[in-house]
Amino acid sequence: GLVHVPINYALRGAELEYLLHTSGARVLLVDPALAEASAPVCARLGLDDVVPLRDRPGSLLDAATDGPVPAIGDEADAGDLAQLLFTSGTTSKPKAAMMSHGALVAEYVSCVIALDLAADDKPLVCMPLYHSAAMHVFMLPYLSIGATVALLPAPDVAEILRRIEAERIGSLFLAPTVWVPLANHPDLDTRDLSSLEDKIN
């Protein structure tokens, strides 16, 4: 019964207000560091709640509530809306793709097969999760097959290289704008990336 609307965490003011208003959002789940910045927009829109997510074990909804997680009354059908995924708005105002449960499951299965994902790959996700590739081609397909996914808040090249070596990361998704500085980093030892060879190619 819930519809997920991922939003670029860099948006402020009118841009953030446009996405929240257009999507019909009623609750905003937000990193505690961003709660203060989003509060004025949410107040103007009259959102029911702004929920700072706490850093503690438990599910997303459990982390956002003080009481028990309410049961969802109806099972979702494949054609039911699961997510509104907004474009960046570079050519006009952002537009939302309506993603159904069935479409997302089909995408995840396709990614697992086409990319030969395995539960023991030790993937690292550094790109923002409001973007469809990081979320729907990499992180969620991996989670669907039981992999443990490591997350970084930003694609810091030095930290990526450190994590690859320290944690023996076996799968990495990056945009070309990050691959270039990573490949040219002075501390890069190509042996550190040997476990990624199959996934990169």
Could you characterize what this model shows?
This protein is α/β, with parallel strands linked by helices and 201 residues long. It contains eight helices and seven strands. It has helices at residues 13-23, 32-45, 60-64, 101-114, 132-144, 157-167, 176-183, 197-200; strands spanning 27-30, 49-52, 81-86, 96-100, 123-125, 150-151, 171-173. The strands form three sheets. A three-stranded parallel beta sheet has the order 6-5-7, sandwiched between helices. Strand 1, helix 2 and strand 2 form a beta-alpha-beta unit. The chain is globular, with a radius of gyration of 19 Å. The termini are far apart.
Which helices and strands, and how do they pair?
Layout: H1 13-23, E1 27-30, H2 32-45, E2 49-52, H3 60-64, E3 81-86, E4 96-100, H4 101-114, E5 123-125, H5 132-144, E6 150-151, H6 157-167, E7 171-173, H7 176-183, H8 197-200
Q: Helical percent range?
A: 25-40%
Spatially, the strands of the biggest sheet line up as: 6-5-7
Rounded mean pLDDT is 82
Low-confidence stretches: none
Task: Sketch the major β-sheet.
Answer: 3 strands, parallel
End-to-end distance = 39 Å
Number of helices: 8
- Give the overall silhouette: globular
Structural class category: alpha/beta
Q: Could you tell me the strand content as a percent range?
A: 5-15%
Helix/strand order: HEHEHEEHEHEHEHH
Radius of gyration: 19 Å
Beta-strand segment tally: 7
